[in-house]
Amino acid sequence: MMIYFDLFLTFLKIGLFTFGGGYAMLPMIQEEVAAHGWLNKRELIDFIAVSESTPGPFAVNIATFVGMRTGGIFGGLCATLGVILPSFVIILIVARSYQKFKSNKLVNGAMNGLKPAVVGLIAAALLSLAQTVFVPAGLNTVVFGTAQFYVTLGIFVAAIVLAFKKFHPILIIMLSAVIGVIAGLIGIF
Predict the structure, then answer these.
(1) Confidence check: pLDDT of 41 > 90
(2) Are residues 124 and 143 in the same domain?
(3) Residue 114: domain span
(4) pLDDT at 44 over 90
(5) What is the count of structural domains for the chain?
(6) Do 81 and 157 share a domain, yes or no?
(7) In 10 A of CB 120, how many CB atoms?
(8) Is 15:82 a contact under the CB 8 Å cutoff?
């Protein structure tokens, strides 16, 4: 019973204290999930990949996956409710009073101050995830001699190039998954 309460409160905190969407939540999700021992770094990256590949908001997907893994269906419901409740309440309040405060200098200042912080949080999460994906055993010269590193780097570069060429994200995800499956079948992953 306590696990459900922990899942709810943990994801409530994540939903309440992070701004900027799912990717801005990644550092806090990483910290909380690791602190509770719910997932290790590798499992979290797998859950992030699945969350990003499935329909729906990233934060809701990751909360649902972690909750289900940790506490079954009810755990998934508790984690999902926890992560969406703050946004739901805040949006109701903001929608009700937006016209009144939209030209307020304090509100505009706060929003302008939050934007670079959100970008910084996303960058920190990206670097942390990149370290786990590209150099899980730490940065050393051995890493550069493995086929896994170069296949992973190739998928990463291809995804960036295709994204800048405006390929649809679903096509990029599907192509990356196919390359990953092939690499796994031939023993690279």
Answers:
(1) no
(2) no
(3) 2-134
(4) no
(5) 2
(6) no
(7) 13
(8) yes
